[in-house]
C-alpha cells in the first residue's frame, strides 16, 4: 500500500479531500502545492509537516519561506515539478485544475512515479503523448502508472478488476445532467453564476462545476476514458442518471453489465486510488438503496448541450482538436466567472473556436502547449472582437 504521497493542488476540492483520506488511512503527506491560497497551504503544512512545499504564485514565496525556514520551499512551474518528482513520495496525487496539470503528470511519470490522476485535462490535452510515454516504460508491477480518481473512471476501473479488456463491448458513463437538466437553450439565456454553481449532487471546484452545467465535463470524460481504457469514442456512451449513485458501467461482449455504486462522495475514488489493489475502509457511508429508492436514466439532450456533441467530434478527430476544445473552454469559463460573458456564450464561443480550427498533428508536449497558447489568444481576439 501507498505510504507517502505528494498532493499537487492541495488547497482545492480534491486536494482537501485527499488530505482527509490520507490522514484517515495513516498515509504520510510529504509534499503539498497550491497556486495562491497561501493561508490554507500554511495551515495544511502546520498540520501535516511535509518535507516540501510549493506556492505557484511567486509573490507568496517569501511569506511561505518565512513560515517554514527549515523546509524545502519552492515556487513557479519548476517548483511544482520538484513536488511532482519528489523522491520520498510513493505516489503523486494530481488535483490541479486545467492544463496546469499536464506537465507535472508527464514529469512525474518520467521520474518513475505512480500518479493518482484527478486532473482530467491531462489526458484530454496530452493523452496521445502520455500513451506513447507509458508504452515506452517498463511496468514495475501489475499496478498501472496512472490510476483514475475521476469518479466515473474509478468506477470503470473497479468494474474491470479481473476482466480482460478485450471483452469490453461498451463503456457507459453516467452524468448527473447538471443544474439545467430538462431545460432548453431559451431557458438558459439569463442564468447567472450562482445558478450555474448549484450542482445537484456534487460539491466541487468552480471550473468543473461550470463544465458539468454545459455537459462538456462529460465530453472531457469520454476523451479521458478513451485513453484510460483504450477504447474508441464510438464505444463510449453517456447516459443521464440524475441521482449520481451509479458512477459508470461496463457492458461486456456477453451482454453482462457491471456497475459501481455509492453515494456521491469523491473521497471513495480517492481512497481506492490510494489503496489499490487493496481496499480501505476510511470514508464511505454505507449505501442504503431502500432510502435512495429510484435510480433513473435519460438520453442526453445533445441539441441543448451541444458541447457534448462537439466533444465527441473532437474525440473522433483527435490530434489538436481536444486541445483546442479544452483551451477555448478554460478561457470561456474564466470569462464567464469574471462576469464578462453569459452562460450560453461559453457554449457559443467554444463552438466557434472549434468550427474555425484546422487540425494539426501533435507529436510532443511542446506542440500541445503551443496549440493551447494559440487557442487562448484566438479566443480572446474572438470575444474582444465581437464586443468592440
Ligand atoms: N472536485 C471534484 O469533485 C472533482 C474534480 N475533478 C478534477 O480534478 C481536478 C481538480 O478539481 P478541483 O479540486 O475541483 O479544483 P479546484 O479549483 O478546487 O482546485 C484546484 C487546485 O489547483 C491549484 N491551482 C489552480 N491553478 C493552478 C495553476 N495554474 N498552477 C498550479 N496550481 C494551480 C489551486 O490552488 P489555489 O487554491 O491556491 O488557487 C488548487 O489547489 C480538475 O481537473 C477536475 O476536473 C474530477 C472529478 C471530481
Ligand atoms: C464527481 C465527478 O467525477 C465529476 O466529474 C462529476 O461527474 C460531475 O458531475 P456531472 O456528472 O454532472 O458532470
Ligand atoms: Mn467525473
From TrEMBL:
Keywords: Isomerase, Isoprene biosynthesis, Magnesium, Manganese, Metal-binding, NADP, Oxidoreductase. It comes from the Bacteria. Its EC number is 1.1.1.267. Pfam families: DXP_redisom_C, DXP_reductoisom, DXPR_C. Residues 5-127 form the 1-deoxy-D-xylulose 5-phosphate reductoisomerase N-terminal domain. Its cofactor is Mg(2+); Mn(2+). It catalyses: 2-C-methyl-D-erythritol 4-phosphate + NADP(+) = 1-deoxy-D-xylulose 5-phosphate + NADPH + H(+). Mn(2+) binds at residues 150, 152, 221. Pathway: Isoprenoid biosynthesis; isopentenyl diphosphate biosynthesis via DXP pathway; isopentenyl diphosphate from 1-deoxy-D-xylulose 5-phosphate: step 1/6. 1-deoxy-D-xylulose 5-phosphate binds at residues 120, 151-152, 176, 199, 212, 217-218, 221. Residues 146-229 form the 1-deoxy-D-xylulose 5-phosphate reductoisomerase C-terminal domain. Belongs to the DXR family. Catalyzes the NADPH-dependent rearrangement and reduction of 1-deoxy-D-xylulose-5-phosphate (DXP) to 2-C-methyl-D-erythritol 4-phosphate (MEP). This is 1-deoxy-D-xylulose 5-phosphate reductoisomerase. The gene is dxr.
Amino acid at each position: 500500500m501507498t505510504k507517502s504521497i505528494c498532493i499537487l493542488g492541495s488547497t482545492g476540492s480534491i486536494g482537501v479531500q485527499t488530505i482527509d483520506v490520507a490522514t484517515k488511512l495513516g498515509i504520510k503527506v510529504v509534499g503539498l502545492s497550491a497556486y495562491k491560497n497561501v493561508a490554507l497551504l500554511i495551515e495544511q503544512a502546520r498540520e501535516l509537516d511535509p518535507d516540501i512545499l510549493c506556492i505557484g504564485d511567486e509573490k507568496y514565496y517569501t511569506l511561505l519561506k518565512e513560515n517554514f525556514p527549515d523546509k524545502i520551499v519552492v515556487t513557479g512551474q519548476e517548483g511544482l515539478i520538484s513536488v511532482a518528482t519528489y523522491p520520498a513520495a510513493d505516489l503523486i496525487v494530481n488535483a490541479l485544475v486545467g492544463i496546469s496539470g499536464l506537465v507535472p503528470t508527464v514529469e512525474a511519470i518520467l521520474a518513475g512515479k505512480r500518479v493518482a490522476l484527478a486532473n482530467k485535462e491531462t489526458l484530454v490535452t496530452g493523452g496521445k503523448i502520455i500513451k506513447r510515454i507509458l508504452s515506452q516504460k517498463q511496468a514495475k508491477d501489475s499496478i498501472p502508472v496512472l490510476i483514475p480518481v475521476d469518479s466515473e473512471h474509478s468506477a470503470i476501473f473497479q468494474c474491470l478488476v479481473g476482466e480482460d479488456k478485450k471483452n469490453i463491448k461498451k463503456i457507459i458513463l453516467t452524468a448527473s445532467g447538471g443544474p439545467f437538466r430538462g431545460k432548453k437553450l431559451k431557458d438558459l439565456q439569463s442564468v447567472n453564476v450562482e445558478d450555474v454553481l448549484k450542482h445537484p449532487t456534487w460539491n466541487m471546484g468552480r471550473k468543473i462545476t461550470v463544465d458539468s452545467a454545459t455537459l462538456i465535463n462529460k465530453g472531457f470524460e469520454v476523451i479521458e476514458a478513451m485513453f484510460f481504457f483504450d477504447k474508441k469514442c464510438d464505444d463510449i456512451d453517456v447516459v443521464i442518471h440524475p441521482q449520481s449513485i451509479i458512477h459508470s458501467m461496463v457492458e461486456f461482449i456477453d451482454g453482462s453489465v457491471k456497475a459501481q455504486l455509492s453515494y456521491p462522495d469523491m473521497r471513495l475514488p480517492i481512497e481506492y486510488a490510494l489503496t489499490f489493489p487493496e481496499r480501505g475502509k476510511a470514508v464511505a457511508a454505507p449505501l442504503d438503496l431502500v432510502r435512495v429508492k429510484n435510480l433513473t436514466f435519460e438520453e442526453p439532450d445533445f441539441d441543448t448541450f451541444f458541447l457534448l456533441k462537439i466533444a465527441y467530434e473532437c474525440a473522433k478527430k483527435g490530434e489538436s482538436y481536444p486541445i483546442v476544445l479544452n483551451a477555448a473552454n478554460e478561457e470561456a469559463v474564466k470569462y464567464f466567472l469574471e462576469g464578462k460573458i453569459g452562460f450560453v456564450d461559453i457554449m457559443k464561443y467554444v463552438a466557434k473556436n472549434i468550427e474555425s480550427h484546422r487540425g494539426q498533428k501533435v507529436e510532443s508536449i511542446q506542440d500541445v502547449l503551443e496549440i493551447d497558447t494559440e487557442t487562448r489568444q484566438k479566443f480572446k481576439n474572438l470575444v474582444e472582437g465581437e464586443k468592440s
